[in-house]
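A.,

Following up on our hallway conversation. Structure tokens first:
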């Protein structure tokens, strides 16, 4: 009975997300038929269509639960399945140099983003939320950091609005850098992993470029996500809150990160039949398309712009700072 009740609540929004994802696949197929190539990938189109639908027509309340489910659980499940496509040999080939540089880049990005936000007049708490969202993993980092620093609800809403809008913009614009700067798939993967907000958005930004970009981008991004635990702990010390009860396993290591690594280990030790590798990859792509449609449906550009130009300016300048750090990192990380 409980499951039926939950299904009734999430079904309308889930179906809306699926419908937009299907439309995006259809439009991408039409692009291929008309041009011989796809300029806007179906994943990117799903984000655009969802954002336009919400901005132009609004979001009926009946869709909210299903959109929340699709933009959170389904995208996390897509990341778990992506673990089947990567093994530890790929991680090992990255080397300790990349691990060290990514670990150093997160605190540097936090300091740069926080300094930019404060210089633009944002409050201490809002500046910290913007810095966490920009430097680690977008909304997840903002939600995890908010109670630790006693952020106001309006600050959390404003910071999340900026990550949603700018996150979409980065995903749409970043692939242009691949051609403009004549990057290799490996270089592009590093930059995407270092600059894109959320793990699934890295997949959206890198999948159209190639498998190598998607793998490297995901690995680099996951390294950034795993910095969430140490950053949250550091923020608690900064705020004078030393109660361990404020922390949960979900805050320190999100379940989908653990699932990703478990499947990656299973792939490494040949515990996943080879016949399942391709279906798992396809399923991950399909689920990502649905979640990206839901992400778009959760963004209303009018609300975002009304939340304040200084927050958007801080986010934009922070992205530029992070992009510069990524470019510098490429000089020190040995290519695969």
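Then the amino acids I'd put at each of the 336 positions:
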């Amino acid at each position: 009975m409980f499951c039926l009740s939950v299904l009734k609540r999430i079904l309308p929004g889930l179906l809306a997300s699926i419908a937009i994802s299907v439309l995006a696949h259809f439009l991408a197929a039409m692009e291929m038929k008309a041009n011989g190539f796809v300029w806007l990938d179906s994943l990117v189109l799903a984000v655009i269509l969802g954002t336009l639908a919400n901005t132009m027509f609004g979001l009926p309340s009946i869709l909210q639960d299903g959109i929340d489910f699709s933009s959170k659980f389904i995208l996390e499940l897509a990341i778990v399945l992506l673990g089947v496509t990567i093994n530890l040999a790929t991680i090992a080939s990255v080397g300790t140099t990349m691990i060290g540089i990514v670990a150093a880049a997160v605190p540097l990005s936090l300091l740069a983003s926080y300094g930019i936000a404060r210089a633009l007049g944002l409050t201490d708490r809002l500046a910290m939320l913007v810095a966490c969202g920009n430097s680690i993993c977008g909304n997840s980092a903002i939600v995890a950091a908010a109670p630790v620093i006693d952020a106001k609800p309006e600050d959390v809403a404003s910071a999340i609005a900026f990550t949603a809008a700018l996150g979409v913009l980065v995903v749409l614009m970043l692939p242009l850098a691949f051609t403009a700067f004549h990057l290799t798939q490996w270089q592009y993967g590093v930059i995407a992993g270092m600059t894109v907000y959320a793990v699934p958005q890295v997949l959206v930004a890198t999948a159209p470029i190639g498998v190598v970009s998607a793998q490297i981008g995901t690995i680099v991004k996951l390294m950034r996500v795993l910095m969430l635990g140490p950053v949250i702990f550091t923020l608690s010390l900064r705020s004078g809150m030393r109660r361990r009860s404020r922390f949960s396993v979900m805050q320190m290591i999100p379940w989908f990160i653990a699932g990703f690594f478990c499947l990656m280990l299973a792939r490494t030790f040949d515990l996943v039949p080879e016949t399942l590798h391709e279906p798992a990859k396809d399923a991950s792509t399909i689920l990502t398309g649905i979640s990206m449609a839901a992400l778009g449906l959760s963004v209303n550009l009018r609300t975002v712009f009304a939340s304040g130009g200084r927050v958007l300016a801080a986010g934009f300048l922070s992205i530029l700072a992070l992009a510069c750090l990524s470019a510098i990192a490429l000089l020190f990380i040995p290519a695969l």
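The radius of gyration is 19 Å. Curious whether your intuition agrees with the design.

B.
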